[in-house]
Design a protein that fits this description.
With 323 residues, the protein is of the alpha/beta class. It is built from 10 helices and 13 strands. The structure holds acetyl coenzyme *A.
Length: 323
Amino acid sequence: MKEVKIISTGSYVPENIIDNNFLSNIVETSDEWITSRTGIKQRRISKDENTSDIAYKAALKAIEKANIDVLDIENIIVATITPDSFSPSVSCIVQEKLGAKNASCFDVNAACTGLIYGISIAWALIKSGLYKNSLVIGAEVLSKIIDWKDRNTCVLFGDGASAVFLSASEQKGIISTFIMSDGQKGNAIKIPALPVENIITGFVEKPQCKISMDGREVYRFATDVMAKSIEKVLENSGLNIEDISLIIPHQANIRIIEYAADKLKVSKDKFYINIDKYGNTSAASIGIALDEAFDEGRIKSGDNIILVGFGGGLTWGATLIKV
Ligand code: ACO
């Protein structure tokens, strides 16, 4: 069977920067509270770009770096919880924007673990021989589902997109990947969609399509699964933490990352951190961090790296890659 390698990455964030002081004029909060409790200093908020627009821009960058013809792309997966529409999917809209006429396209809903889910599915599709390559995108315009009156959540999130181009290869790439879910704890992070209402049931008041979260419950879950996920993917690969040069975690809260570093008895420097600039961009966060780590020269050819995420669903997972 073929190996599956990451050929290139790309990312894009909207221009508009909203800092903590701006938010302290909207809800009862402060730069001090947000920085000390989360590590977030600012986030990007879309003015007029929807999820497919920023997904397309991140994808273009990955395609450019991979130096491939869009007609050679065989599969596009978009991980998102903030699609433009129920149908068409964001991946089909991106396909149309790119002119990638020969691709199959579908979206994945696994919240902040979305990119790990997308990469795992693409890995399996390429390994099976169904496709030779796959463009995996994580993209969110979370600002449209944020309740801007709720200080518990509105300070945490930002908008952004990232893309990873994967291809069959003779060289080792993805060494191990796993994804998991626990639907029983799904109520910890909720974004309602439409209720059943029609001419038979009668018409009901629609719930607001806004995010709500039990922050303490998610915090407990996240601190539990982040270190465990890293240990699991190491065990599956037969490697030790010392063999890993960089860990790219989902950027939700600096304290969750520090907790995982303590638990694994490694320096915080082993983790790539950019939460201060973007906040939690859900499915986009790991890919944005991965793209920046490549650009900054933090990842070199031959390095072993780990991507690790957790999020709504609840979902979690990790991928170990030889670059
Ligand atoms: N500004 C000021 N005070 C605030 C704010 C704010 N923005 N938000 C909450 N508070 C208050 C609370 O009301 C509470 O006040 P009280 O004690 O009078 O009730 C107090 O601060 C402490 O609240 P806690 O919830 O205990 O604060 P904590 O230190 O746990 O931090 C946080 C809250 C940041 C949300 C944390 O629990 C967290 O990071 N949880 C995980 C969130 C996450 O990772 N989500 C990712 C998944 S999202 C997805 O998949 C889309």
